[in-house]
Amino acid sequence: MRRWRERRGERRGVRFSVRPTARGWQAIIIGVLVLVVARVIGTTQFHQLGYALLILPVASFVLGYLASRGIGFSRSLPAGERLTAGKSARIDVLLSNDSRLDTSRLKITDRLPDAREIRAPPLRGGGGTAVEVPVSFARRGVYELGPAEVRTADPFGLLIFARRFVRKTEVVVYPEVHDLTGFPLSGGNVEAGSRGARGQRGDEFAGLREYRRGDDQRHIHWKSVARTGELFVKEFALEAPRRYTVALDVRRSGIRAVETEIEDAVSVAASVLTHLQRERLPARLLCNDHSTEKTEFASDEAAYWRAMRILATVRTDGDALLSETVTEERATLGEGAVLISRTRDESLPGCVRKLRGSGLSVVVVLLAAHAYRGYPTGHSGGREAEREAEFQREVGWLEAAGAAVRVVRRPEGVAGLAGGRARERGAV
Fold first, then answer.
1. Is the dihedral of CA 240, 329, 370, 311 positive or negative?
2. Which CATH number is 204-422's, of 3.40.50.300, 3.90.1150.10, 3.40.50.410, 3.30.2000.10?
3. Which fold has domain 71-174?
4. Where are the domains of the chain?
5. What does DSSP assign to residue 161?
6. What HEC string does 250-298 produce?
7. Could you tell me which residues are beta bridge partners of residue 92?
């Protein structure tokens, strides 16, 4: 009874149609013409030929229907595979034949998410096959695949039998992830959840602070000196922080928001979370969108994919500044914070200073918004140079507040955070 109900439910989502092929139309038209001629001249042989030509499509329909009614269709991702924006992947199209009769070659039209034509070999009665279909999604998000139509012909090639499978498959396309080799976060591969477990790294960069008498002059941060005229030294943590909050700025920024800039910001968050997960450091995600999406501290794979699901669908619909959201969550940030800022936030240096005063390690990833809007950098004059100078002052304020600053700008994008290229600002 249960299997009957399942098959009934599947059939409700399938629409059946049949139409003649070019050869089928020829057989029907010629059969009708032969019968008309037979009526006019009264020849028995013509009557027999006309009836034979018209009976042939009927026989084709019976045979084709019996063979095609058992066709089943579904889609699935290969085990353990995830879809990532901009990366090639594959989806398995699964075909089955519950009928006792063999089918002819199959032609499938499916939306993945654009319309695709897929060909499959004939299916033996009671058999099945899987066809690998390459796919690629340009943007993150949740996509619906389908509906699909599976077509087959009768043994004589006179009729096409189409079964339309209206049920859709939902897939999640995650943001692009970059390897952050050299990014100032690590944890010595500590066991997740262990009490007091921290990576023993005496060279873990924690931020900047004002110079004090007796400080090692080798740790003076000369770039900050050149910008501010005051002495700052690099501060190192004896132990790497155990828990990190990754705070993503998705505040609404009006009609001037550039899609590439938003996608790069989301990609930074995904890359940092991936880096922390590989380091086996408990992490959480915090967004300043309209619903203030956030997760709890964890380092297991399930928690990681929950955070990535949020990043796959998050939108720039928030009103609060990143500094406001982070300040409200200050008591739950853990021992370190990675702030990903893409909109102007004059309160961010003050927020960093408060976090540093509370003993947190702070890394700020700052997106150079003017570079995403087509303004060239390094220009000697004009509005472009003013925007770059203003951006450099913002970097200096964040460094002076004690943050390790990393800059993302076009054309390098998020890939520029890896290795030596990441160390454009606040390098250690």
1. positive
2. 3.40.50.410
3. Immunoglobulin-like (2.60.40)
4. 16-57, 71-174, 204-422
5. E
6. CECCHHHCCHHHHHHHHHHHHHHHHHHHHCCCCEEEEECCCCCCECCCE
7. 76, 132
417: DSSP letter: G
Tens-place pLDDT, residues 319-370: 999 999 999 999 899 989 999 999 889 999 999 999 999 889 999 999 988 8
For 165-194, what is each residue's pLDDT tens digit? 999 999 999 999 999 887 877 554 333 333
For residue 257, what pLDDT band results from cuts at 50, 70 and 90?
low
Classify 292 in phi/psi space as left (phi over 0), alpha (psi -120 to 50) or beta.
left
* pLDDT for res 193: 33
Q: Per residue in 202-249, pLDDT tens? A: 455 666 777 777 676 777 777 777 777 777 777 665 454 579 999 999
Distance CA 263, CA 258 (A): 9
Distances (CA, A) of 305 to 9, 269, 270, 283: 31, 13, 10, 12
Distance CA 167, CA 73 (A): 10
Q: With contact defined as beta carbons under 8 Å apart, do 355 and 329 qualify?
A: no
Quick check: do 71-174 and 204-422 share a fold? no
List Cα–Cα distances, 66 to 4, 20, 97, in angstroms.
19, 16, 11
- Residue 65 to residue 21: CA distance in whole angstroms: 15
